[in-house]
Each structure stands twice: as structure tokens, then as C-alpha cells.
Specification:
By secondary structure, the protein is of the alpha/beta class.
């Protein structure tokens, strides 16, 4: 531990508490921000976060707070661990208090989260010299049992992160990979945006299990183990092929959905079918189904993942009919309950060519 490094974890949900607790177990100085005063007060009673299973131990944090300025003032490394539909409102609270020399990591960013954050900094006239980075997924499969107590089902072997612009990659690596070696610096946030398997693994399986999700009486099933069937996995691989094609258009060799599972969870091999690999993932056992289409697997991952991927496709001229069909059907069902999301216009990249966008990202 370096006494001069202070971590601020922004988000008091499953991932935020686990991230803060893990850092504290490793001996780091940690603060936790949550908009829930009830949760803040509960955690502050002991200033401890208890983790079990894949990560095991008791971590002592410095404090929890519902005040953004208190949370990030003087912090070295700031990690935003929130559903992506909360990114914009949270960033607006954070940006006025950013200070030169801070490092911000959005984890998970969903897709194009760092791009959206930089756009807000520009709109809010923030000139603080900060490193902004992002990764597409959390290192943990985790659930909070109660404030300050989390059950960590699994820990990924590798999570890609990158800075925007990519010229800041070295600074991002020094800030975050020092403590968490499973973070791997990749070329740019285009790659992290496309290395987002939640975009594939959440909306389509929920949509295709709608009759089970909305069944009366209520049905319970293991979301991944029982909910990803051979036919559903066939659609996921078609969506995956569109994602790979976008990556190829930017010059990236994007790993497939199958390879992502093999790399992150060590749960299979290339000779296995996708649905078999998923069923072989010990970290997914016991994770139950969502209870409504109006949960984050849809409300977050459609507008802030699938729409963002489709936007990257639009920049390159790549068609995404399977991705777009899932978006279209869920918009037809949910209407205004679904945000517009990260369209090319909302991201501020609608007037860029593929080459201009790539050069901007790379810096």
C-alpha cells in the first residue's frame, strides 16, 4: 500500500461495495460513495465490508458518504462502479470537483462510456487534467446480501481497460494495474466498448425468456445456467459476429464471445458449444433470473450497450441487423421506459468519419 494513494469508489451497489471491500482487504485507503443515505449510515456503523467465497475477508474503509465532493476531493484514483443508466447524472455531480492529477476509471462503462464522460467534461467546461479510462465489465460476479456484506460468486481472470485518449494508457496502467493485475491495457476505448459481453448476454436472453420472466405464478430459474439454451446461444453468436465485424473495421482482432468466457472464467475450450461453456461456468451457478423486463439487463444494456455498439457500426458503415432487431423489439414492448441511449448524436461523433473518430480516440 502507498500511504499517498486514496481510492474513491463511486457506487454502493453489488459491484461498488465489492470493489471497495477488496481494495480495503488488500490494504488500500478507500472511500465509498452511495446516493443512498440509509446504506451510507449502515456501512459507517462498522466501516467494514465483508466479502466471502471467490474473494474472502473483511476490509476496513475510511468512510462512506452520500456527498460527492467529500468522496472525491483528495482522491487519487476514482472508480465509477454503477449501472450505465446512472453514468450521466453521476458524472454531472462529479465533474465540478475533479482535480488535476486524478485518474478516473468507469467500470463497467457498458459501451462508449468514456466517450460520453469526456463529452460531458467538454460541455461543462471542465479543464481538469485527469486521466479517463474505462473497462467494459466488472472483475466480479457478485451480489450484496446486506449493506457491507457481499457474496462474490466469481472473479474474472482478465478485464481489458483503456484510456481516452489512448496516449494516457501508460498513466492508466500505472494507476490501476499495479493493484489489480487482471486489468489488461488494450489499445483504445473502441476495444473496451466492443469487449462488452453484457450487451450480448443480457437483453436477448431476457427477451427470449419473456414468458418465463412474466409468468403467473412466478417462475424462478438460473439466468445463465437454465436460461441460455442452444437456440438462444445461436442468436448470441450472430450478434457476436456483427460485433466482431465492427472491430475488424477499426483494425482490431476482437475475441469472440466464446473466447471471452474461456479467457475470463477458464470454463471451457473452443471445441465446446457456447451454451455448454456458459453452463460450465461455476461463477454463474446460483445467479437467478430477473423478475421483469424493466430491470437493468434491459434498461441499461439496450440503450447504453447495444445502441452504442450499433453507433460504432454506423461510424464504420457496418450493418447490425441482429443487434438492431433486439433493440427494436424491446423498444416496441417498453416504449418510453427505454432511454434513447448512446446514439452517434448523443455521443457527439455524428459528424466524424471513421478515420476522424479513430484518430480522436487514439489521441
Amino acid at each position: 500500500m502507498s500511504e499517498n494513494i486514496v481510492w474513491a469508489i463511486i457506487g454502493g451497489g453489488h459491484g461498488g461495495q465489492t470493489f471497495a471491500g477488496h481494495l480495503a482487504i488488500l490494504g488500500e485507503r478507500v472511500r465509498l460513495y452511495s446516493k443512498s443515505l440509509e446504506k451510507v449510515n449502515a456501512i459507517n456503523l462498522s466501516k467494514e465490508i465483508i466479502l466471502s467465497n471467490a474473494v474472502d475477508g473483511i476490509g476496513e474503509i475510511e468512510f462512506a458518504t452520500d456527498d460527492m465532493e467529500t468522496a472525491i476531493t483528495g482522491a487519487t484514483n476514482i472508480v465509477i462502479v454503477l449501472p450505465s443508466n446512472w453514468h450521466e447524472s453521476t458524472a454531472k455531480k462529479m465533474i465540478p470537483f475533479l482535480q488535476d492529477g486524478q485518474n478516473v476509471l468507469i467500470l463497467p462503462e457498458a459501451s462508449c462510456g468514456a466517450i460520453a464522460f469526456r463529452k460531458l467534461m467538454q460541455e461543462m467546461n471542465c479543464n481538469a487534467k485527469v486521466v479517463v479510462g474505462a473497462g467494459s465489465t466488472l472483475p466480479y460476479a457478485t451480489r450484496s446480501i446486506s449493506p457491507g456484506v457481499c457474496n462474490v460468486y466469481g472473479l474474472k481472470e482478465e478485464v481489458k481497460i483503456a484510456a481516452l485518449p489512448a496516449t494516457d494508457n501508460k498513466a492508466l496502467e500505472e494507476a490501476f494495474c499495479r493493484r489489480f493485475p487482471w486489468f489488461k491495457i488494450c489499445q483504445s476505448v473502441i476495444e473496451t466498448s466492443l469487449d462488452n459481453i453484457n450487451a450480448l448476454m443480457h437483453p436477448a436472453p431476457v427477451l427470449l425468456n419473456t414468458s418465463r420472466v412474466e409468468a403467473i405464478p412466478v417462475q424462478s430459474y438460473q439466468y445463465y445456467i437454465e436460461g441460455i439454451t442452444p437456440s438462444i446461444s445461436a442468436l448470441l453468436e450472430k450478434m457476436d459476429a456483427e460485433r466482431i465485424e465492427i472491430a475488424n473495421a477499426f483494425g482490431y482482432q476482437q475475441r469472440t464471445l466464446k473466447q471471452s468466457y474461456i479467457d475470463m472464467y477458464q470454463c471451457g475450450n473452443e471445441d465446446m458449444e457456447l451454451w455448454e461453456i456458459i453452463q460450465n461456468n461455476e461463477g454463474y451457478k446460483g445467479i437467478m433470473n430477473v423478475k421483469s423486463l424493466k430491470e437493468r439487463y434491459v434498461l441499461e444494456d439496450v440503450p447504453y450497450s447495444l445502441v452504442a455498439m450499433s453507433s460504432l457500426g454506423a461510424i464504420t458503415g457496418i450493418k447490425t441487423p441482429c443487434i438492431d432487431s433486439v433493440v427494436t423489439i424491446l423498444r416496441a414492448i417498453l416504449g418510453e421506459d427505454l432511454d434513447e441511449g448512446r446514439t452517434v448524436k448523443r455521443l457527439g461523433i455524428d459528424n466524424m468519419t471513421k478515420e476522424e473518430f479513430y484518430n480522436w480516440v487514439m489521441g
